[in-house]
Amino acid sequence: MRILIVEDEIPVADFLDRGLRAEGHFCVVAKDGEQGLKLALEGEFDLILLDLVLPVMHGHEVCQHLRMNKVNTPLMILTAMDSVDDVIVGLRLGADDYMTKPFSFEELLARIDSVVRRNSSQAEADPLLRGGSIVFDRRSLRVTVGDEEVHMTAKELAILELLLSNPGKLFSRERILSNIWGLNMDPSTNVVDVYIGKLRKKIDRDTRESLIETVHGLGYRLNLPPGRV
User: N or C: the chain end with fewer CB closer than 10 Å?
Assistant: First the structure.
């Protein structure tokens, strides 16, 4: 994704820039609200990460101007302002999510996935996710592998949707855990590995290697043979 980071604190901006680039995203950093607004109005971004306490123009003004100008790019506020009133104002001005500093980078990634998924017009236009012989109907929550319907639990469906939506993308165990089970789970649990094993038994049919690849020490990704995406 193309992500605009509007943040005047250099250490925070650099942290976000490096971390998101490591996840495969392209980032542009604006150091004040006016520059951020200008870039957001002129450029085509998939996501905006916006601080509130900014030089030149406050983040609330940036958010308000964007929505008044019909810029509907998903927008997340990242700020140290943590009162209930601050959150309410930010959301009412058009923000899609609100996170307070300091924050976990894994939580940020999970929130980004959630915000982008909610705003994805593609998902609304086509409820079917396809990968090789797998077809996942997100409306009926039915999965077929080849000509056979495969029954799955809610957690198995959630993991499959995450992987099918991002073929070839590597997900750490921690990121899968925060996406599917939430942020209160013990990070040392092996529940992700257990469910990946269950999922493999249900989707691996006529393949010599599992469609879900284990990258040791890093996590999992869905790899489809050439011509089967």
Answer: C
Q: How far apart are CA 18 and CA 10, in angstroms?
A: 12
Considering the chain, what is the average pLDDT of its residues? 86
pLDDT in tens, 66-113: 998 888 889 999 988 888 888 888 888 888 899 988 888 988 998 898
- 114-127 CB burial, b ≥16 within 10 A, e <16: ebbeebeeeeeeee
What pLDDT score does 227 carry? 47
Is the separation of the CB atoms in 222 and 131 below 8 Å?
yes
Which residue type sits at 13? A
Query: Of 75, 21, 20, 23, nearest to 52 (Cα)?
Result: 75
CA 121 to chain centre: 15
Residues with Cβ within 8 Å of 78's Cβ and at least 6 positions away in sequence, in order, are 7, 12, 16, 49, 50, 51, 99, 101, 103, 108
Total number of residues shown for the chain: 229
Distance (Å, whole) CA 83 – CA 9: 20
For 6, phi then psi, to 5°, come to -110, 100
Instruction: Report pLDDT digits (tens) over 46-61.
Output: 899 999 999 999 999 9
Q: Are 69 and 88 in contact (CB under 8 A)?
A: no
Residue 26: strand pairing partners:
2
Question: Which of 98, 94, 105 is closest to 81 using CA atoms?
Answer: 98
49, β-bridge pairs: 5, 76
